[in-house]
Backbone:
């Protein structure tokens, strides 16, 4: 399996609520589902969302969780069965989109149902989020542990660590104050401005793009797609056959602050390492498997 690390300018895909994404849940019947929960003394928020758009937005000075929801269905009868649960459970604020389990039967008869949620929370609160399908955007929280079935998933601003398990759809993660760990099925992964390390534990398909990671960029198990990195402290990869290759940049171009980037080809019997977009007139040490090489 051939893989590449290469330096590149980062172009994070913007988070879009396009007509195509929203058309999946367009319905003739809608109804509001709103709630307010006291968040004084709360340590975290737990969200169980189903089908529909999801926003979790950290707001400075907020002492409550404010939920603005829109239930959607192609059946007026089914619309009344879509509920919003919002309550305090000890030091946790719990939010759930309650869509009945027999939604599948309605789908089989060309019915649809969803609950769009915009959840405003105290800035910096820790969050645990589970989402079924539909686009998700999370901003200005503490730490995050999230799972997502399908749809684009965006995290912009997390003071702590971020861990995401994603089925399909593009991931965008920016401005994280801790480590980032990702398990991904398919879709591009875009990461920018991470204080800790960025680890891809597994990735089925899609590109991996990282820039300005102060810790390591580690790809443990990857299927297909390019890997592009820029301004990182350390890069390492191990493929499914157990062959590992790593590079440790030792110099930067002062004008652009680009790390010395290597192109890595990891195969079952050999590892090849060559310098690309390195630092002019400066020596850099790269390490491929157990074979050191000095390039200057």
Residues:
């Amino acid at each position: 399996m051939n893989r590449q690390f290469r330096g590149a300018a980062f172009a994070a895909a913007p988070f879009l609520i396009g007509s195509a994404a929203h058309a999946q849940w367009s319905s003739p019947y809608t109804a509001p589902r709103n709630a307010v929960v006291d968040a004084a003394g709360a340590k975290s928020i737990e969200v169980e969302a189903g089908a529909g758009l999801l926003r979790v937005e950290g707001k400075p000075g907020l002492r409550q969780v404010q939920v603005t929801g829109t239930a959607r269905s192609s059946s007026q009868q089914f619309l009344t069965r879509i509920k919003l649960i919002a309550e305090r459970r000890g030091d946790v604020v719990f939010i759930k989109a309650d869509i009945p389990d027999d939604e599948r039967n309605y789908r089989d008869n060309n019915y649809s149902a969803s609950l769009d949620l915009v959840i405003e929370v105290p800035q910096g609160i820790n969050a645990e989020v589970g989402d079924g399908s539909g686009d998700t955007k999370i901003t200005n929280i503490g730490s995050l542990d999230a799972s997502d079935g399908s749809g684009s998933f965006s995290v912009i601003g997390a003071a702590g660590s971020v861990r995401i398990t994603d089925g399909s759809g593009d991931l965008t993660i920016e401005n994280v104050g801790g480590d980032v760990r990702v398990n991904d099925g398919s879709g591009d992964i875009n990461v920018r401005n991470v204080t800790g390390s960025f680890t891809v534990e597994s990735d089925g398909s899609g590109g991996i793009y990282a820039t300005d990671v102060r810790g390591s960029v580690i790809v443990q198990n990857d299927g297909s797609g390019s890997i592009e990195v820029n301004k990182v402290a350390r890069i390492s990869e191990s493929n499914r056959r157990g062959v590992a290759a790593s590079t440790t940049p030792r110099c930067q171009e002062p004008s652009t602050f680009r790390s010395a980037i290597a192109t890595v080809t990891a195969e079952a019997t050999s590892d090849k390492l060559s310098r690309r977009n390195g630092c002019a007139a400066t020596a850099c040490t790269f390490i491929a498997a157990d074979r050191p090489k000095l390039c200057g």
Q: What stands out?
A: The CA atoms of residues 28 and 253 lie 57 Å apart. Residues 103-108 form the longest helix (6 residues). The two ends are 28 Å apart (CA to CA). The chain is about 5% helix and 60% strand.
